[in-house]
Each structure stands twice: as C-alpha cells, then as structure tokens.
Amino acid sequence: VLQSSSLHSSSQHGFQYSRAILVENELFLSELRAFARAKEAAGYSQEELQETFAFLLFDKEEEAQQVCQSGLRVNSSNISTL
Description:
Elements: H1 26-41, H2 46-49, H3 61-70
Protein name: TASOR protein
Pfam families: DUF3715
InterPro entries: TASOR, TASOR_DUF3715
C-alpha cells in the first residue's frame, strides 16, 4: 500500500520503509464518522466524501507514538512530511 500510494510514479521506489503501523483509535474514528455525516447532510457528493489516506514520515518513533495517542489536528504540529 505504501509503495502504490505515491502521488508521483517516480517516487514509488525512492523510499525504504522499515515498519508501517496502522493505528485505529475509536475516539478519532467516531469523530471522523460524525464529520462525514455532517458533510453528507450538507450535500457533499459521495466522491467528495470518499476516504483517502496519507502517510506521515517521522524522524523518531516517539513522535509517531505521540500522534497515535493524541491525534493530529490542523495547525497543532510542526510535522510537515506527508
């Protein structure tokens, strides 16, 4: 999934990943579902409501653990490498 998710095909083989972890946080998922319901009620199309994924690149495992515990909010982090 990581290799095929590159926006540019030239980037697909430019990274080596040692480990990827899928984090599922029930609180965050319920917030996402509520957000999607509100957008659907506001008339957003199914295409606009379709989920997409992004991958964050961390320098230290501790940074990743912090995001997994507290979430990632707009303007709440200096993480800038997607």
